[in-house]
Design brief:
By secondary structure, this protein is of the alpha+beta class. It has helices spanning about 15-20, 25-30, 45-55, 105-120, 135-140; strands at about 1-5, 5-10, 60-65, 70-80, 85-95, 125-130, 145-155, 160-170.
Length: about 180
C-alpha cells in the first residue's frame, strides 16, 4: 500500500470492480483508453483476469485509487512491465467526479514511486493521445518528458491513431508534483 496525502493506491481486487464499472460508460475513458466501444458485457471480468495473470508472472499490475474513506476514485496501472529491460508502461484513469482535483497527478506520483522503488525501473513510459490535454498536464506535473509522437501506433477496433510517448528516468529530477 502506498499513500500520498488524501489518496492511496492499493492492489486492485475483484471487490473493486463494481466501483470501476461506471468508467466503462464515460466517453472520455472509452475515447482515450484501450476500452472497446462499446465494452462487451464481460469486459471488466476478462480485463481483471488479464491483470491477475500478469501479476502472477510479473508483467502487469493494477491498483485502485482510493480516498481516505476508501471510496474508489479510479485506477492506476502498469499495463506492461518488461523486467529484462527494466521498462514499465504506466497509466491512470480517474472517475469523472474526481477529475480536476489533482487525483490523477497524485496517483501517478505514487505509481511512479512504486515502479522505481519496487520494480527498480530504469525507464517509465506513458502513452498519451495527442488530444488528451488533461493527461499531458498530469505527465508534466510529475516531471515526465515528452519524447515525440509515434505515428499510427495506437490501434483499437480497426482505427489507427497517433500516440505521444512521455518518459521518466530515475536520474531525472524528482517529481515536480509534490
Amino acid at each position: 500500500m502506498t499513500t500520498d496525502a488524501d489518496i492511496t493506491i492499493v492492489p486492485l481486487a475483484r471487490s473493486h470492480l463494481r466501483d470501476l464499472a461506471p468508467l466503462l460508460d464515460d466517453p472520455e475513458v472509452v475515447r482515450f483508453t484501450r476500452v472497446p466501444d462499446p465494452p462487451p458485457a464481460d469486459f471488466l471480468d476478462t480485463w481483471f483476469a488479464r491483470y491477475e495473470d500478469g501479476r502472477v508472472v510479473g508483467t502487469r499490475e493494477a491498483f485502485a485509487i482510493v480516498d481516505a474513506d476508501q471510496a474508489i476514485l479510479g485506477i492506476a496501472l502498469a499495463p506492461a512491465i518488461d523486467r529484462e529491460t527494466a521498462t514499465v508502461e504506466l497509466g491512470y484513469v480517474v472517475h469523472q467526479e474526481a477529475r480536476g482535483r489533482g487525483v490523477a497527478s497524485r496517483a501517478l506520483a505514487l505509481l511512479t514511486d512504486w515502479a522505481f522503488g519496487s520494480l527498480d525501473a530504469k525507464r517509465i513510459e506513458l502513452l498519451i493521445s495527442p488530444e488528451n490535454a488533461g493527461s499531458k498536464r498530469v505527465a508534466t506535473k510529475n516531471g515526465y518528458v515528452y519524447e515525440g509522437t509515434l505515428r499510427s501506433m495506437y490501434f483499437k477496433q480497426d482505427v489507427r491513431a497517433d500516440t505521444e510517448i512521455w518518459s521518466k528516468l530515475p536520474t531525472d529530477p524528482s517529481q515536480t508534483y509534490r
